[in-house]
Amino acid sequence: MTFKTQFQFNFLYKSILVLIWSFFSVQPIFSQVSLNSYAEIGSNAVSEGVYGDFSTQVEGRTGNFSTSVGGLLSFSNARESVLSAFLFTATNDFQLKKNKLSISGFYLWKPLSDIMYETNFGLLGACRTTHFGYKLGLNTRFYNFTKAAILLYNFDETTQTTLWEPTNVMYKISYFRDFSKKLDIEAVVTNFDHYFIQQETNPMILLNLGYKLNSKLKLYSELGYMQAGLLNFHVNAFGVYLRGGMIWQIN
Question: Which residues, including other chains, have CB under 8 Å from residue 70's CB and lie 6 or more apart?
């Protein structure tokens, strides 16, 4: 087995085990457990054609506290590994007059290739009114060579193997509208999504349509437009994606 193939197999195997463990272990601990899963197709400036993503996130909630764990599998000509990201989030909700405030801390790990990975730590504050939602936070990001790559390429002790991006501002502004008890729409301007965080000057525009089948199951579709800079949408276009998924309240 080659170094590249072994790298892909090990991380894919570990990610599947983590998600399976999360699904079964959080049910006895939390009063509410939900599953958010989606499939996505898209194209961007670095995907080398059309790519496909599949994500599953498991969330457990008790009272005002919730925690979630999720993973992203990517299928693209540009990627060297199938596992694209792993995310862990812990959130606590507060009530301020009539509005709900949330504070979240998260850990995001992404194997960029068979020789380098990215690690993010961040803090987000969120609030929502009847029609508007706001999120604002900071994250810090590290790029590291893997231990296997350091051994493979025989880096000496003086070689810099970590690049640190100290702070990056994260923001999300959402507009919500309910057309009925079952159908709703959300329009978003943001610089981050579930598994990636762009620079402050690289916003995305998202349009999300949701449909509640019943009290436990909601289907949604999302169209996203990404750009590589402000002001000129045509010249700075980065990519688009179409996403379809479900949110299932297990208990």
Answer: 19, 36, 55, 56, 57, 58, 86, 87, 194, 195
